[in-house]
Design brief:
The complex is a heterotrimer of chains A (159), B (266) and C (269).
Chain A: H1 3-28, E1 39-46, E2 57-60, E3 63-74, E4 79-87, E5 97-102, E6 109-114, E7 126-128, E8 130-132, H2 137-157
Parallel strand pairs in A: 1-7, 2-6, 5-8
Antiparallel strand pairs in A: 1-4, 2-3, 3-4, 5-6
Chain B: H1 2-34, H2 37-41, H3 43-53, H4 58-80, H5 89-127, H6 130-136, H7 141-180, H8 184-194, H9 197-225, H10 230-260, H11 262-265
Chain C: E1 5-16, E2 19-30, E3 34-39, H1 45-52, E4 60-65, E5 68-69, H2 75-82, E6 85-88, H3 100-111, H4 116-129, H5 145-156, E7 163-167, H6 175-192, E8 195-200, H7 203-206, E9 212-217, E10 220-225, H8 227-232, H9 236-243, H10 259-263
Parallel strand pairs in C: 3-8, 3-9, 6-7, 7-8
Antiparallel strand pairs in C: 1-2, 1-4, 4-5, 9-10
Helix pairs in contact in C: 3-4, 3-5, 4-5
Classes of the chains: A alpha/beta (159), B mainly alpha (266), C alpha/beta (269).
Chain lengths: 159, 266, 269
């Protein structure tokens, strides 16, 4: 087995190996998006983040505009603080609102951004004032039961 | 009574011998790392080993990857379509391969093909006194013979695992989209949305590197330490395959626990 | 001016895993001579050779080789000493994944910075000396036993060593090959101005070839002398060994209980 043949085959092997890695990274994974884009960060406080996880998408009008970078608990206001990394190409007004939504009926949770009307845009480090927390199933059920009970009570009491 | 006592004595001796051997293997690993300079300065030595360990394993890796991917798609479709989620087939195939099956199965195949060959080669060189001859000629056999084989294996393993995963995904595509008829767009787009480069692909690569080190280290050590007889070499070759396979599965558990459940801890 | 001893063994004992192998050996190998160390299989002569090659350290006593005490050498010193030695292993121990040319060129490529042209000339000269210049592109697996041994010899003398060690060089060779190797041992020793130590039990080929003989049995030196002395020797072991007698100090029967008792004939009264 002479050296030049070995060199050739090793070269081919390494080339297709790296090619496979590239294929995995680009076509299979999500490297094509958000790898080198400029980003800025904004914070938002929620009374309940539900099942929101780090790396969950941040969408506006259904399009992914960023990712959740960090989720912390604020020990003073006793609220959850979510830090989001947004693509610098997308600017949002300062009075935009953030809601925690679910994709599909039983799907993953994500942050939905709705643009406001303020002419000033959000800057790096700003905090979103308007937020709506996640819908928690237990609260929904107890609300439903409570409203049903109240209706029944009204119907009886209102007679 | 005596039988129990002697059985216990033998068990104790076996455990002590095993621990002693582990220490010896660790020292050997340290020595190997320290004397790897030659393997890199005269890189053609390592290239030759990349050929023998990597290139010659290509066929089995590619074919196995293809079949594993195809079976994943078949089995996955069966179950997913019962919940109306057949479009998630791409995600199922890709994540199974990239996170687990790629590194692990490629590692097991590598251990049985290349690992056993390396052990047999080094063991035979020891049995025919080639390693002693090298020592007599003032050439360190660990630096000249063992280190290039070690680094050849470590370099080949991640590439083989990536090729296995890529072939598997292609196989999944063939069965899922071309054969069964899952929507092509959904297959790829859902896959892209769910497979994360850092968490999934990179972790898979890290796993394959760890497995490569483990398998190749076991292979060169067993060969270097083999008794210089025919039975000795054949025993060492068997031990390489068995020990490497167990090591891969054990390390896979540890790495998976570290890498993929960290998200829940948050 | 007395010939300085190339290897000097003083009061040397060696035990392997607490099994004693060599017991208080004293040997001296003068410069320029071909010396044989003879004895039965298992008498410790190969171990002695490995101690001289500094592959093993004595448990007791000293081995001075080419002016160096092997016990005090560090790894660099050890490798420096070995570059001045050449060793021929029992069945050649050629590197099976390299051609004949590459085997002989091995030490030159590893230890010198000579350009490839010079190495080529040297390799061809060494192979010419053993008569195998035409076999450069063969692989060791394609060679006969005798040819492989000759290539190993060319490899052993690649860097013109001062001391050449032979571990059972005549094992398994046909009469022609035997004659060739024997002649080469003497020829190379004299033309290189080197010293040679041959470990062997082949009496017929060795005695005509060497200048001095040491006899070993059970890890001890039991006799020594020139080949002429040895043939006339009165020592019983030497006489049995040299003449190939089946019984003598080395008994024919392995120790066992009485023969009649074993066959159950003892009761016959």
């Amino acid at each position: 087995m002479n050296r030049s043949t070995i060199d050739l085959w090793v070269g081919i092997f390494v080339a297709i190996g790296l090619g496979a890695l590239l294929f995995l990274a680009l076509k299979v994974g999500n490297l094509a998006s958000f790898s080198t884009a400029q980003t800025y960060q904004v914070h938002a406080k929620f009374s309940n983040i539900g099942g929101l996880k780090v790396r969950a998408p941040v969408k506006s009008a259904g399009v992914v505009v960023g990712r959740v970078a960090e989720i912390r608990f604020d020990n003073e206001s006793f609220e959850a603080v979510a830090t989001m990394t947004l693509d610098a190409g997308y600017k949002f007004p300062r009075d935009s609102s953030a809601k925690i939504l679910t994709s599909g009926l039983l799907g993953e949770q994500y942050v939905g951004l709705e643009a406001g009307g303020n002419p000033e845009m959000l800057k790096d480090g700003d905090r979103l004032r308007l937020t709506q927390s996640a819908v928690v199933l237990e609260n929904l059920i107890s609300q439903f039961l409570f409203s049903k009970a109240a209706e029944g009570g009204e119907a009886k009491g209102g007679k | 009574m005596n039988a129990i006592a002697s059985a216990l004595a033998r068990l104790g001796a076996a455990v002590t011998a095993g621990v002693w051997r582990l220490g010896y293997a660790t020292r050997f690993f340290g020595y190997l790392l320290l004397h790897s300079g030659t393997a890199f300065r005269r890189f053609h030595l390592t290239m030759r080993e990349i050929y023998f360990a990597g290139v010659l394993s290509l066929i089995i890796i590619l074919v196995s990857g293809l079949f594993v991917g195809m079976v994943l798609a078949l089995q996955g479709y069966e179950t997913l379509q019962r919940y109306g989620s057949s479009e998630a087939l791409g995600i199922l195939v890709a994540l199974s391969l990239v996170r687990e099956l790629g590194p692990v199965v490629a590692g097991l195949l590598f251990a049985s093909r290349a690992g056993s060959a390396i052990t047999a080669e080094i063991g035979l060189m020891k049995a025919t006194e080639q390693l002693s001859a090298m020592e007599m000629m003032a050439v360190d056999p660990v630096a000249r013979v063992v280190a290039p084989r070690f680094w050849g294996g470590v370099i080949s393993m991640p590439l083989l695992a990536a090729l296995f995963s890529a072939m598997g995904i292609f196989g999944g595509y063939l069965v899922g989209v071309v054969l069964i008829g899952v929507d092509e767009g959904a297959f790829w787009s859902q896959m892209q949305a769910a497979v994360d480069v850092r968490n999934d692909i990179l972790n898979g690569v890290i796993k394959s590197v760890v497995f490569g080190v483990a398998v190749t280290l076991i292979a060169v050590f067993e060969g270097y330490d083999a008794p210089p007889t025919a039975e000795g070499v054949s025993g060492a070759t068997t031990r390489t395959v068995v020990t490497s396979s167990l090591a891969i599965l054990a390390l896979d558990f540890v790495l998976t626990a570290l890498m993929f459940t960290g998200g829940n801890a948050k | 001016m007395p010939d300085p001893a190339v290897a000097e063994i003083q009061d040397l004992s060696f035990a392997y895993n607490r099994q004693p192998v060599l017991h208080r050996i004293r040997l001296s190998i003068p410069q320029g001579k071909v010396v044989a160390v003879m004895g039965q299989s298992g008498c410790g002569k190969t171990t002695l050779l490995r101690i001289i090659a500094a592959a093993l350290l004595p448990s007791h006593g000293s081995a001075r080789v080419l002016g160096q005490d092997t016990r005090v050498l560090d790894r660099d010193g050890l490798y420096a000493l070995r570059r001045r030695l050449g060793m021929l292993f029992q069945f050649g121990a050629l590197f099976t994944d390299m051609t004949v040319y590459e085997n002989v060129a091995f030490q030159m490529r590893e230890h010198t910075a000579l350009p490839e042209d010079t190495i080529r000339d040297l390799v061809l000269m060494k192979l010419e000396a053993v008569g195998l210049r035409g076999a450069t592109e063969r692989m060791p697996g394609e060679l006969s036993g005798g040819m492989a041994r000759r290539v190993a010899l060319a490899r052993a003398i690649a860097l013109d060593p001062e001391l050449i060690l032979y571990d059972e060089p005549f094992t398994g060779l046909d009469p022609i090959a035997l004659g060739v190797i024997a002649r080469l041992v003497r020829q190379l020793n004299d033309s290189l101005g080197a010293t040679s130590i041959i470990v062997t039990h082949d009496v017929a080929e060795t005695l005509p070839l060497v200048d001095y003989v040491y006899f070993m049995a059970d890890g001890r030196v039991v006799a020594e002398g020139t080949p002429a002395d040895v043939r006339r020797s009165g020592v019983a072991f030497v006489e049995q060994f040299v003449n190939g007698r089946i019984d003598g100090p080395v008994p024919f029967h392995y120790p066992a209980a009485g023969y009649a008792a074993d066959l159950g004939l003892a009761q016959a009264a």
